[in-house]
Amino acid sequence: MGDHPSRRGRTANELTDQIFEPPLKTEILRDEIYCQIIKQLTDNRNDTSERRGWELMWLATGCFTPSTNLTREVLQFLRSRRNQISTDCVNRMQKTQKNGTRKYPPHQVEVEAIQHKTTQILHKVYFPDDTDEAFEVESSTRAKDFCHNIANKLMLKSSEGFSLFVKIADKVISVPEGDFFFDFVRHLTDWIRKARPTRDGSVPSFTYQVFFMKKLWTNTVPGKDSYADQIFHYHQELPKLLRGYHKCGKEEAAQLGALIYRVKCGDNKSGLANIPRMLRELIPSDLVKASSPDDWKRHIIGYYNKNAGMSSEEAKVEFLRIIYKWPTFGSAFFEVKQTTEPNYPEILLIAINKHGVNLIHPSTKEILATHPFTKISNWSSGNTYFHMTIGNLVRGSKLLCETSLGYKMDDLLTSYISLMLTSMNKQKSVKK
């Protein structure tokens, strides 16, 4: 609060960490923090000190509540003060009582918000169709609530299967739905900082971006939710097709190419002559050289003309309906190196989807094996590997993969299995 002179300048977060880390770890200190802040806010004639005291009170009420014995006194104190922040502190304290205690001290975004006298934090969220929107996030917002808010605002039929992802440094990590949003981002930035120290010992700053995307495709049916198809499903499936991950015939590729062109250009035929130069944007990369550019052009235009009058929105759904028939629809694909199974190629394509873990030949795109989630008994991951046991823990077969994306495979497997168990439990309770 500036009442005690400090010898060196420190960042706001250094100070708030020092104040809030101990009470978050030791419950008995929480009352002490509230008592000290109230004491320093009582008859304080220094405007700067008082302003900072209210900033601390605002941050405290979003992190933890005092004990039952002290709660009434703190609320009485807050209600006796006539300012906007005290009213906001009462609301924050009630939300913290309802939603639970945070694990980490306030995030930099929260500290900066109250220092700039704003009690409303708006966070930008990016979507797969290259649009973005700002959403209000509170200290007590858990990832699940955040997902619901986004789904409601975008008028999606359900938020099931959707997740928030945080992109930081070179990683994109899914936010567990039960975590407080700011806790997770705080944990992530601290982890990256420790993993990548700077040479001069200074604290590196990491910017992050938040994405909202479809993660689990268990109940995804094209045409069932038009907004989800337009904003998410089409734009998330398109890159996988173009990278050549699916097994796709030349006819289907031309058909899909015509739909992709229609999404891009609608009924505008003036660009059709450019198709040979656009092939990488229309045809799977492994099939581009399977026909001459002029052959592709002829085929694509043929299908394009058949779809005359179709809107670009309808073309997106039609595109999804074709891919939906494939066993690899809605997959997350991983190129890995495996050494445990001599019958499989060393470089393997793994697709994780609603059917389980699929092992795919990277050249022919044939599915070599599908391991349903019910048969996977154990899995683990590290910085350079992903390990999985199929069947019995002792006599089952093992698959060890070299990959830097083990954390993503691990998380997907955990999430799909968790969703499967939840729906099984729901079915059981319905039968009862």
From TrEMBL:
One of its GO terms (cellular component) is cytoskeleton. It is found in: Cytoplasm. SUPFAM superfamilies: PH domain-like (SSF50729), Second domain of FERM (SSF47031), Ubiquitin-like (SSF54236). Residues 121-424 form the FERM domain. It comes from Magallana gigas. Keywords: Actin-binding, ATP-binding, Cytoplasm, Motor protein, Nucleotide-binding, Repeat. Belongs to the TRAFAC class myosin-kinesin ATPase superfamily. Myosin family. This is Myosin-VIIa. Residues 1-115 form the MyTH4 domain. GO terms for molecular function: actin binding; ATP binding. InterPro entries: Band_41_domain, FERM/acyl-CoA-bd_prot_sf, FERM_2, FERM_central, FERM_domain, IRS_PTB, MyoVII_FERM_C2, MyTH4_dom. Pfam families: IRS, MyTH4, RA_2.
